[in-house]
Design brief:
The complex is a heterodimer.
Chain A lengths: L2 H12 L11 H22 L1 H7 L2 H12 L7 H12 L6 H17 E3 L8 E3 L4 E5 L5 E5 L7 E5 L1
Antiparallel strand pairs in A: 1-2, 3-4, 4-5
Helix pairs in contact in A: 2-5, 3-6, 5-6
Chain B lengths: L7 E5 L5 H6 L7 E3 L7 H13 L2 E4 L13 H14 L4 E4 L2 E4 L2 E7 L5 H17 L5 E4 L14 H12 L2 E5 H11 L3 H6 L6 E6 L1 E5 L2 E8 L3 H10 L7 E4 L8 H18 L1
Parallel strand pairs in B: 1-2, 1-12, 2-3, 3-4, 4-7, 7-8, 8-9, 9-12
Antiparallel strand pairs in B: 5-6, 10-11
Helix pairs in contact in B: 4-5, 6-8
The chains are: A alpha+beta, B alpha/beta.
């Protein structure tokens, strides 16, 4: 098997999409896969604290489902990963979860811009303005001014 | 190698330590920053600001130098932009791959110890060397949870062959050596003795933890005594220019890190 094939198969198995390539210690690959998933989950928890709290025990299983299906990309792939999950949960039937996803996305959008079509620079620092409404726990109008270091204002409404 | 500056001991840079780094700049030989984390002009300006206080070295984590698919030109351009702004004395990356077949693994995956892997890394490093206009490149040994089948050489021979074919220097991660020795059952000193120690420029130290019967290089604990002993063994046998204490999570008070920096600096002084 060529190096390219070995790497593709190993990457797919570490993402939970294929069994371990032949000749590898299946237990060790599975431990590595779980460890990588936990690393992704920890990074997402940091970026989506409201969503993590709102989902409670369901967070683990929902993140596992997301991790198996979605390939984060780019230099800041942990931000891309969290962004994708939060967007997917905007239409969650539990209004609290949907609100938390919305507010965490607002916070991400204050700092970053995302272009799903782009490659390495899919996530970039935001330079442009943002006006958004945060829904929990009290309604806040968030205004980010334009420029690379745009000032952010939180206004109670 | 004679042209590379002696920096001494320092820490990996985290945003949370911005002001601590500036406040304690006289106690730090260098800080190591990750160009992959720089997402735009503001991030770049921050690195330039830090560089005014402390020498900055750049350490990549996502170029995937071991990829048989070759390098992502966008990522190479990104690193080149950061290098141009920061002007570090060298740039380092890992002997590993991080993406393949459209999957971003999110971590460093091991290469098989084969001639094909040596050739893949060498081709990618040469491309990187051209993009970075001859800036010295250091390559780092990784902690691997499992070896890949089909080995034609040992890990140390793989590292040596890559360094020889690229002219790159070695960033020796002693915590990775410690972790591999524990997980794969060998003597770390025996391993170190088979590496080209004359090419070591920088050392990484960190702390990990045991999980499910494996020792993981998590960068979440203080440096274990075993790794300190490896540093004490290494320093008189090589010409180390920098030691970086890495910490990614469970960040301790900065004073705890400074104590580790002072201990590393002490090891370097004993040798000189």
């Amino acid at each position: 098997m060529s190096l390219r094939d070995v790497q593709s198969r190993l990457a797919a198995s570490l993402a939970g999409r294929e069994p371990a390539p032949a000749g590898l210690d299946e237990g060790a690959v599975e431990r590595a896969r779980r460890s990588l998933e936990a690393k992704r989950r920890r990074a997402a928890s940091h970026l989506l604290p409201r969503l993590r709290n709102a989902m409670g025990d369901a967070w683990l299983a929902r993140f596992r489902e997301h991790a198996t299906l979605y390939n984060p990309a780019g230099l800041l792939h942990h931000v891309d990963d969290a962004w994708e999950l939060a967007e997917a949960l905007l239409r969650h039937p539990d209004a609290q979860v949907a609100c938390a996803a919305h507010d965490d996305l607002v916070v991400l959008r204050l700092r970053y811009e995302r272009d799903r079509r782009a490659g390495a620079e899919r996530i970039r620092e935001r330079r442009g303005p943002v006006v958004a409404l945060m829904r929990t726990p009290t309604r806040l109008l968030v205004v980010r001014m334009p420029g690379p270091e745009g000032k952010v204002w939180y206004l109670k409404v | 190698m004679a042209d590379l500056p002696f920096l001494g001991a320092g820490v990996s840079y985290r945003d949370a330590w911005r002001w601590e780094v500036i406040r304690h700049r006289d106690e730090l030989g260098a800080v190591e920053c990750i160009p992959d984390d720089v997402a735009g002009a503001a991030g770049l300006r921050e690195l330039v600001l830090i560089r005014q206080a402390v020498p900055v070295i750049l350490h990549g984590i996502g170029l995937s130098l071991g990829s048989a698919e070759g390098l992502d030109p966008e990522r190479v351009r990104h690193v080149a932009r950061v290098v141009e702004a920061v002007e570090p004395p060298w740039f380092s990356e890992h002997i590993a791959f991080t993406r393949a077949g459209g999957v971003e693994i999110g971590h460093l995956a091991p290469l098989p110890f084969t001639r094909e892997a040596v050739a893949a890394v060498a081709a990618n490093v040469r491309e990187l060397q051209a993009a970075l206009a001859g800036l010295p490149i250091l390559l780092e040994n990784i902690a691997y949870p499992f070896p890949l089948p089909g080995a034609e050489m040992t890990e140390a021979e793989l590292v040596g062959a890559i360094l020889e074919s690229t002219g790159a220097y070695l960033l020796l991660d002693l915590e990775n050596v410690h972790a591999n020795a524990l997980n794969h059952g060998y003597d770390p000193i025996d391993y170190l003795e088979t590496l080209p120690l004359e090419r070591v420029v920088e050392v990484h130290l960190a702390g990990g933890l045991w999980k499910e019967g494996q020792y993981l290089d998590t960068h979440t604990r203080s440096v274990p005594e075993e790794s300190w002993r490896l540093l004490e063994w290494l320093v008189p046998r090589s010409d180390v220019r920098a030691v970086i204490i890495e910490r990614d999570d469970d960040l301790p008070p900065f004073g705890d890190l400074l104590a580790e920096v002072r201990r590393a600096e002490g090891c370097l002084r004993v040798a000189s």
